[in-house]
Every structure is written in structure tokens, then in C-alpha cells.
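Lecture notes, unit on binding sites. The following record was shown on slide 14. It pairs a sequence with flavin-adenine dinucleotide.
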Amino acid sequence: MTSSPGLRRSGFAGPYRGRLTGVDDVWDLVIVGGGPAGSAAALRAKQLRPAARVLLLDRADFPRDKACGDGVAAHGRDELALLGVPDLIADYRPTRRLEVVSPGGARVRATVVRPNHVVPRTVFDARLVDAARARGVEVRRHRVRALAAHGGHIVVDGNVAARTVVAADGANSTVRRLIGIPASPARHTAIAVRGYADVPADDDVQFIAMQKDGWPAYAWSFPIGDGTANVGFGMLLPRLHATGLPGREVLHGRLAELLPHLPARDLRAHHLPLSPGRPRPGAGRVMLAGDAAGLVNPLTGEGIYYALVSGRLAGEAAVQAAGDPLPAYRHALRKALGRHLRTTDVLARAAQSPGFIDAAIGTAGRRQEVFDLLVDVGLGAGTVPLRLGWAVLGRWILNGVRRG
Ligand SMILES: Cc1cc2nc3c(=O)[nH]c(=O)nc-3n(C[C@H](O)[C@H](O)[C@H](O)COP(=O)(O)OP(=O)(O)OC[C@H]3O[C@@H](n4cnc5c(N)ncnc54)[C@H](O)[C@@H]3O)c2cc1C
């Protein structure tokens, strides 16, 4: 019995020492977690190799709820098309208008180049899992607790053997812990609460209100198109701890304070592992995708698009580079998101100063191309051309001088 060198290096539990009881047969790919990242991996693997044996394990039955703003950016719809499910959310109303108020009160209201959608995760995730099932993926309800390397395989909970594992089990990933990759540090972790509120059925403006106190922090209202909106509030974990107050009191209180006209029900909170710029994509024959890899945009908290991209690339590597998928996955991820992740890392550091965001929003209010660029960086894989970076920097300095 041997464990793969990658797993051993990463501190993985090591070779399986007990007797394997009841291992039925070997799966080409076992995916842990049926959120957008896991379903994308499953869909892509079967799309490229229909004969591949793919097993999707989730601790929950679908449909299941997930604390989220339910915002699916146009970039996410591009991914759905690549996965062969272009019409998955076509029955939901497209939303074109976006309004943002900066911490210092600068306001921009504009039309996005390509519409976003708001789709409750109970619906979105269940549809993705159904699509994977329809493509021949086996879906089982099972909470994964243990992994072991055994021969050339990974054995999950002692009785499921896989050539490759994709860990898409979310922000508190068990698999990531089992392979010895640390969770996001607190400074790279946000926490957010979401609920639902009644709004006029024709409300079609995605609204974001940033808050100076405890910055970075903001509330949102994302109308679904059926007379309800997903509303919520999020902030960095260290800022929450710094208040010294119970988390629930702070999150619920600030949501009510920023959106007093939208009393929310079904409140539910969760952590967001913000991207540190250079994610660790796995170890040995285990690839991390989505929140498990810490792929949440540190500027906006957007994660569905990155979950879909990384899941797709992990599924692709699992079947196209079956012998040694991790290097192929690392390369593909870097190519798809590398520059973008480094850009958002730098911007997130600058954005620690609310004045920088005031300058960015102020500039976006006057120049449509800056607004478009912010949307692309905040919701997709956008990067910042130097010229525009300087424009925002100039305004930031000017604002500082004026205030001085
Ligand atoms: C309040 C809030 C608002 C947000 N708003 C937005 C937004 O508007 N737009 C956006 O793009 N992003 C948003 N995000 C981020 C987004 O929700 C995540 O980035 C996204 O869900 C990541 O998808 P995933 O597939 O990686 O993980 P998840 O969606 O978390 O799925 C993980 C799955 O793994 C399963 N699982 C966990 N542990 C195990 C285990 N041990 N065994 C088996 N299964 C397991 C879970 O049941 C779950 O189904 C928000 C996040 C929060 C908290």
C-alpha cells in the first residue's frame, strides 16, 4: 500500500491501514458536494467523457437551501452554456439595472452591459444536480468524513474508491482539512446573512449600500422578479469580532439599519472564504473547487461564477489528464483566473480604505467604461488596465486633498 506523494506532502492522513470493507468498484471521479462547483465538475466530466463513472456525494438531499445572495452574473450564464445547460435559468427575469452607494455616499446607477439573474439557490442548485443526474452522474446522499490513499486510488469513508476526487464541499470543506490544506485565515474570511423581503414585482434594480462603519461592509437587495428580493448584509470577520457583540445582533441589526424599508424573513448566515490571490488547488489526486478552494471575490463576495469555472476545469482535468490531474487543473485555473485573482487581491488591499471605493464609484458614475470594468472585475474574470487604475488613483488622491 502506498499513498500518493502529493497527499503525503500535504499532511494527508496517509495510506489506508485497515481492511477495505465493501469497496464495490472504482469510480473514475468522486465529487464531494453538489453546489455549483460540484455539479459543474460532474457535468463537464460527463460532457467530455460520457462513459466516465462519476459519483456525486452530498450530505443533503436536493432541493436544499444555501445562504447566498442568489445573484448569478452574466459570466455565470456563460459557464452554464459551456456546461451544456444554457437555458437552466432562462425562465428567471434578467436584471439590467445596478445601483451602488459607496461608503462616503457617492452613488452610481447604471445599466450593465449584460443582464444578471437572481435565482434562489434552492432552485439553482437542484436544477444543476438534476442536469448532472440526467447526464448519467450517480447522486447519493452521504456526508464525507474520511479519505485515505490506497494503491493508486482515494478511498472515501472506507468503502468508495476513486481514481480522482473533486472536493466541492464549500467554505468549511471537510476534504480540504483532511488533505492538510488550511482554511482561509480570518482576515480573508467574510460573514454574511441573507433573507427574503417583499418588494414591488416591477422592482428590477440590484441595489448595494456600502457602510463606512466597520468597512468593508455592505447590504444588498436583489429582486428576483416575483415580488420578493434577496436581501442581506456582509462584512469581514475580524471587523465583526472587533465590535465585541454577538454576530447575530450585528448582522441582523445592520441589515435592518441599511434597508429599513425591507424587513427580512428566513435569515441565514454563512462564511465566505475570500480569495487570497493564489489559491492552493489541491493535493495528490484531490482537487479543490469553488469555496473549498477559497475562490470568492474579495471585493464583492461573488462566488457562484468562480465555483462554476473551477468545477468545470476540475471535471475537465479529471477525465482529460486522468493519470495526474492536479498539474493540469492548476495550469487551467491559473490560465482562466490567475491575473484576475491577483488583480482582486491588490484591489481588495486598496479597498480597505473607504476613500478608494468612493473614488472608484465616483469615477464609475461619470464614466460608463469604468462602471463596466468594475462589474467585470467584481462579478467575472476582469482585470484593470493601467490607464483606468491611474484614473481612479488620481481621483482618490484628489478627494484626499480636498478633504485635507
Ligand atoms: C450570505 C451570502 C451571500 C452570497 N451571495 C452571493 C451572490 O449573490 N452571488 C454569488 O455569486 N455568490 C454569493 N455568495 C457566495 C456563494 O454562495 C458561494 O461562493 C457558492 O455557493 C460556492 O459554491 P460551492 O459549490 O463551492 O459550495 P456550496 O454552494 O457551499 O456547496 C457545497 C456543498 O457541499 C455539501 N457538503 C458540505 N460538506 C460535505 C461533506 N462533508 N460531505 C458531503 N457533502 C458536503 C453541502 O451540503 C453543499 O451542498 C454568497 C455567500 C453568502 C454566505
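Take-home: The CA atoms of residues 213 and 315 lie 42 Å apart.
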